[in-house]
Design brief:
The complex is a heterodimer of chains A (about 270) and B (about 220). Chain A is an alpha+beta fold and about 270 residues long. Chain A is built from nine helices and eight strands. In chain A, a hairpin with a 4-residue loop joins strand 7 and strand 8. Classes of the chains: A alpha+beta (about 270), B mainly alpha (about 220). Chains A and B meet through helix 1, helix 2, helix 4 and helix 5 of A and helix 1, helix 2, helix 3, helix 7 and helix 8 of B.
């Protein structure tokens, strides 16, 4: 008996599982030449392991399982993409306390439809923002076009890169020149439309319009026929009236306070400093 | 990022997963088939493990062994979910058996299976001795045997999956295989196929390459 014979359980198993290191393998194979007992034992183990492995061999995966897994992955993709949509749209939901105050204010608002000049203006803004109208420019050249034809307007940018300026046209509201900006809110599921009507709002009495305070920013809000309107008036007296059928008032308001509108710095001529 | 980019990335993610992971479906099903109670549970186990792998695909290190990674997820899913389910089912079964005993209804084990042709199809054939023998093994032994003798993983890979030292893997494998062989022998004797044989002799040492190496080095 040698040291190797003492360890035949370990060595035979590791040998058959191909786990011996190079030198161990050489030593063991040399030993097998000299030791009939260990050789016999190894042959017996080899045969029983082969038999065991043969009997353990499982059937292949059924074709139906494969089809079922592809469907499960499809479902998983769809729900991941829905989750992403929720995440993206909800990013504009108002933060904590502001949200509660705003929702309360919006609830009051629904009961008290604004009247007067502001109410008529809100109605007209919604009408223009929801009707089909030809774009005068679209795509990448929109910003340049706006700078040229409506120099007083700087299209707002949103924190979310998925909100893209898609086009613009010139129009008027309440006898004032206005630019209408078309945005696309891109989520993995679908694309939402968002429009903004911008105009010089000097002299407009907004008091008839429901106002909410969101994070120190005052917004005017309205809702008609399922269309939501949020109006922001900047320090230069310029109004930005946003409308979307798809986004809730809360989401719209959240978007506006998360845009560069509220952070803008104006130079001495009242232009937005870039 | 634009919608197009995002959809494209998602599509690439899916294609990559199918290319790298779904090709190991037979391996996953094979392990599940031998670990779970019946083919239906095996399919559920594969699906749960595969979806989990898909969700964590970003964390898979691309140049490591994908099959071992998938089997790790499958093994953990089996231990965490299916064993728990099995235990709670056993508790339920016991409660039901007690209820029926109280009701004075003679309940024959397996009667449900015999009544329902569907159940009969879903259960494995009782003649599948190797599965019967496997089911009798402690979970640790069975898992080690499945990962080595069916999946061909190395001791090191099995040790990583089972979170134990290589020496422990070796002794589980050794004892698991011995117990399996003995059960299969016993079943064969029971059915009258073969005469009882003496058990294989053992060298009597600890099953561990590390201690072999230590002894040899000393």
């Amino acid at each position: 008996m040698t040291k190797l014979c003492d360890s035949i359980d370990t060595l035979a198993m590791a040998y058959l599982d191909d786990e011996l290191a190079e030198e161990e393998l050489r030593d063991f194979e040399l030993h097998l030449h000299d030791c009939g007992g260990c050789k016999e034992r190894l042959d017996r183990d080899r045969a029983s392991m082969a038999e065991l492995r043969r009997r353990l061999a499982p059937p292949p995966a059924p074709d139906l399982l494969r089809a079922r897994l592809v469907r499960a992955l499809d479902t998983e993709d769809a729900s991941a993409s829905r989750a992403m949509t929720r995440q993206r749209v909800n990013r504009w939901l108002l933060p904590g306390a502001a949200s509660v105050a705003a929702v309360a204010a919006l609830a009051v608002f629904i009961a008290n439809r604004p009247g007067g000049a502001a109410g008529a203006l809100a109605q007209e803004a919604i009408r223009q923002n929801t009707r089909v109208a030809p774009l005068e420019v679209q795509g990448a050249s929109t910003e340049g076009w706006v700078r040229r034809y409506a120099p007083e307007v700087t299209p707002p940018r949103f924190d979310d890169g998925g909100v893209q300026l898609a086009g613009a046209r010139l129009t008027s509201i309440d006898g004032r020149d206005a630019a209408q900006l078309f945005y696309q809110v891109v989520t993995p599921d679908r694309v939402y439309d968002l429009r903004a009507l911008t105009f010089d709002a000097h002299g407009i009495d907004w008091s008839g319009l429901q106002q909410v305070d969101v994070d120190g920013t005052t917004l005017g809000v309205d809702r008609r026929d399922g269309n939501n309107l949020v109006i922001f008036v900047d320090r230069e007296g310029y109004a930005y009236a946003f409308t979307s059928r798809d986004l809730s008032l809360e989401q719209l308001a959240g978007m506006v306070v998360h845009s560069d509108l509220v952070r803008r710095v104006h130079d001495s001529r009242g232009r937005v400093a870039q | 990022m634009s919608r197009k980019d995002m959809l494209a990335r998602r599509k690439e993610h899916r294609a990559e997963f199918e290319r790298e992971a779904l090709v190991h479906l037979d391996a996953m099903y094979g392990a599940a088939y031998r670990l779970a109670r019946n083919p239906r549970d095996a399919e559920d186990l594969v699906q749960d493990a595969l979806l989990r792998a898909y969700r964590f695909w970003d964390t898979f290190e691309k140049d490591s062994n994908c099959k071992a990674w998938l089997l790790r997820i499958l093994t953990n899913t089996f231990i965490n979910e299916y064993q728990k389910k099995k235990r709670s089912r056993e508790v339920l079964d016991a409660a039901q058996a007690e209820q029926e005993a109280t009701d004075g209804v003679l309940h024959h084990a397996g009667a449900d299976t015999q009544k329902s042709p569907e159940g009969l199809l879903l259960e494995r054939s009782v003649s599948d001795d190797v599965q019967r023998a496997l089911d009798q093994l402690p979970d640790e032994f069975r898992t080690a045997v499945v990962l080595c003798d069916i999946e061909g993983l190395s001791y090191k890979e099995i040790a990583d999956i089972m979170e134990c030292p290589v020496g422990t893997v070796m002794s589980r494998l050794f004892r698991g295989r011995r117990l399996l062989e003995k059960s299969l022998q016993d079943f064969a004797v029971e059915s009258g196929y073969v005469k009882k044989k003496d058990p294989a002799p053992e060298g009597g040492d600890t099953i561990d390459l590390a201690s072999y190496r230590a002894r040899k080095g000393s």
